[in-house]
Amino acid sequence: MKIEDIKKEFPIFNNKVQNNDLVYLDSANSSQKPLVVVDRIYDFYTKEFSNVGRSVHYLAVAATNLYENTRTSVQKYINAKDKNEIVFTKGATEAINLVASTFGQKYLKEGDEVLLTELEHHSNYVPWHYLRKSKGIKIQFADVNENGEVTLESIEKKITQKTKIIAITHLSNVTGAILPVKEITKLAHSKGIPVLIDGCQSAPHLKLDMQDLDCDFYAISCHKMYGPTGLGILYAKKKWLEELPPYQGGGGMIGEVKKEGITYGDLPNKFEAGTMATAQVIAFNESIKFLNKIGIDNIVKHENELMEYGQELLRKNNSVKLIGNPKNKGAVLSFTIDGIHPHDIATILDEDGVAIRAGHHCCQILHEKLDLVATARASLGVYNTKEDLDQLNLSINKCKKIFE
Amino acid sequence: MNLKELYQEIILDHGKNPRNLRKTDNFNKDAKGHNPLCGDKVHIFLKLNENKKVEDISFEGQGCAISMASASIMTDLIKGKEENEVKEIINDFLEMIKEKDSLNTKLLEEDEKTKLMCLSGVKQYPMRVKCATLSWHTLISAIDKSQNEINIESKEI
């Protein structure tokens, strides 16, 4: 598939938004959906619907196979060793909550430390915060440097005898910094510490290889990967899924249930209690096919070119200040404009059909560190073009004019 | 939608050069408000005299043009009013932002009402209504001292 044809695959761009062509620059928040994904949901509900993993009738068996096919596709896409290392969740947030809760319950005690970074999204901080209260653990934050990066050294500095798990983002949703997660994992493992990686921003934009990365846990958000909402993935090494206690109890996750006691099901069912987001899981297979059709190498190249083009445009634009300057950067452009609050920027850009996000992007720790109340953020996806960034720049100029 | 209605000259002026952006000496009532969604913060300081008249009102804070302008215009209009008058003006403003087309209070001059009505442009931007109302809710809190910190997200408007 040619990069310039990609936009055509997304029906949302056929419609005007408030009489404007949509310039969608909010993919770090959530991506738009290609028609194949939308159609798959419709087809499943209209022609193939049944619950999975329970009944023996034809539709149930077919649906179960489709559901499991996605698990295999995900396994291949992220190069996990075993398909049972893929657990479906309701989102990346639930994936991290699952690990924090079950790992915390089994392995953490008073005084133990969990090491995060100052770049973390609230969803990779708040679930660990709960353990402060319930278990009396401590949370450490590795420092972010002036470029908006977290280095291997800054992680190393915060590791102590009491560090029991390291939970870090792969790609910052504010500064765009790509963390040296492989090196961090190697370092952590040399000290016997497991690593969880929040892959929300990296999974749609970088090549993933769980076996090469060797991390213990990896959380993915499907709606940021051109897939449906209500779905996330937890990759976890098999030994962890075997050792950790179940997260939620209910149907589908059990072995035998008796009045005297209960045994739990095999992997990954043990962590998939209740009826799952079946249609979304099945449709997500189309997202993976879509990504494979373009090719992750082409995606990386396209988005890097765009990011550099956008950075140059914004750098040349007086009074626009880019937030963070990491050496290794994903397709996120956070910025401020002197004298104009990010919310005013977002409202004015919206008038031209330019959709960006303004605020703290669920990263209050980072914004406090940067001494900023809020930032404006343009984030890119496969469908974006240089014309989109030109329009962003034009609308920023309009914004400056209003506030002159 | 019309950006010109939202960003009127008066709003831009008050947003850029907010009046009463300082801390009142010897204030006897205050309250903090914040909008966790966007990070806007405001701290209102009131000095009421023995007759419950607003001798001085000021604010500190950071926020968008709409929230700064709203706090600026509000503090200008409230000065010199009595506590129950302040409450009436607040209610009138909040009702206007919520549903009414005009301000009904007789406590404000026509030109003062015109100034306040400049904020009515936010009605077309539901996500921005809370920017305009944050300082007003915080003022209620300062007067009543019902809550230490107002979280605008938990307010209906």
Low-confidence stretches of chain B: none
**Largest protein interface?**
A-B, 19 and 20 residues
Q: In CATH's first tier, which class of the largest domain in chain A applies? A: Alpha Beta
Can you give the helix content of chain B as a percent range? Answer: 40-55%
Total count of domains of chain A: 2
The gyration radius over C-alpha positions of chain B equals 14 Å
State the separation between the terminal residues of chain B, measured CA to CA: 20 Å
CATH topology of the largest domain in chain A: Aspartate Aminotransferase, domain 2
> Structural class of the secondary structure composition of chain B?
alpha+beta
- Give the topology string of chain A: H per helix, E per strand: EHHEHEHEHEHEHEEHEEHHEEHEEHEH
Oligomer state of the chains in this structure? heterodimer
% residues in beta strands of chain A:
15-25%
Walkthrough of the structure:
Chain A has 404 residues and is of the alpha/beta class. Chain A has helices spanning 35-48, 58-77, 92-107, 126-135, 152-158, 181-190, 210-213, 238-243, 278-294, 296-316, 342-350, 364-369, 386-402, and strands spanning 23-24, 86-89, 113-117, 138-142, 163-169, 195-198, 217-221, 232-236, 254-257, 262-264, 320-322, 332-337, 354-355, 357-359, 375-379. Chain A has 2 domains: 3-30 and 296-402, Aspartate Aminotransferase, domain 1; 39-292, Type I PLP-dependent aspartate aminotransferase-like (Major domain) (Aspartate Aminotransferase, domain 2, 3-Layer(aba) Sandwich), CATH 3.40.640.10. Helices cover 39% and strands 16% of the residues of chain A. In chain A, the strands form 4 sheets. In chain A, strands 2-8-7-6-5-3-4 form a 7-stranded mixed beta sheet, with helices on both faces. A 4-stranded antiparallel beta sheet of chain A has the order 11-12-15-14, with helices on one face. In chain A, helix 4 links the parallel strand 3 and strand 4 (138-142). The mean pLDDT of chain A is 96. Chain B has one domain (3-146): Sufe protein. Chain: A (Alpha-Beta Complex). A 4-stranded mixed beta sheet of chain B has the order 3-2-1-4, with helices on one face. In chain B, a hairpin with a 4-residue loop joins strand 1 (29-35) and strand 2 (40-48). The mean pLDDT of chain B is 90. The A-B interface holds A 18, 339-344, 347-348, 351, 358-360, 364, 367, 373-374, 402-403 and B 1, 3, 6-7, 12, 16, 37-41, 62-66, 68, 125, 128, 131.
